[in-house]
Amino acid sequence: MPPVTADPDTYLNGRWKDQCDYFESKAKFNQTRYLQCRQITLVSSWLTPIAIFGSVLFQTASGQSVPGVYAHLYDFVPLILSTVAIGSYQWEELHNYGAQWAKFRLVAERLKNHKELFARRAGMYRTPDDGEALRKFVEFCEGLIEGTDVNYFTLMIDPRRHESMD
After folding, report:
1. How many domains in the chain?
2. Among 86, 132, 148, 159, which has the highest number of CB atoms less than 10 A from its own CB?
3. DSSP annotation string for the chain
4. Residue range 41-47: average pLDDT?
5. What's the domain range around 106?
6. Does residue 125 lie in a domain region?
């Protein structure tokens, strides 16, 4: 590891800030996508039985259905809604937006937590030597960032494929 500069502001305003901003933005992106997929799934799931009921209601009202073409087109509405519900659910499962959101949020919060501990010389940074505290802080942050890359691949790689490679 290259020597650590004695100026904590250099690290905090450079590498640490860039990484913290990166994890914050990825957490926000994945949170937004996760909530969008869940909302689409929820709304289309709610509307599917209503559309089915509407289809039955249109066909039984006064013994005559809605004019032929429209009745057959309306029959596709429940199919489309249920397909959207299943599709949005599977899209979220495929991209792991929920798990990604949690992972990136956790890393961002741990980086901020350790910045505060370092600034207050608390916990593992409680030492009279500023250089030693900074070295521990940099080692922790870099280890957390590096560990996140390993965890990402563990999360995203198919475990069955991983086992067959051993």
Report:
1. 1
2. 148
3. -PPPPS-HHHHIIIIIHHHHHHHHHHHHHHHHHHHHHHHHHHHHHHHHHHHHHHHHHHHHGGG--S-HHHHHHHTHHHHHHHHHHHHHHHHHHHHTHHHHHHHHHHHHHHHHHHHHHHHHT-GGG--S-HHHHHHHHHHHHHHHHHHHHHHHHHHHS-HHHHHHH-
4. 97
5. 8-149
6. yes
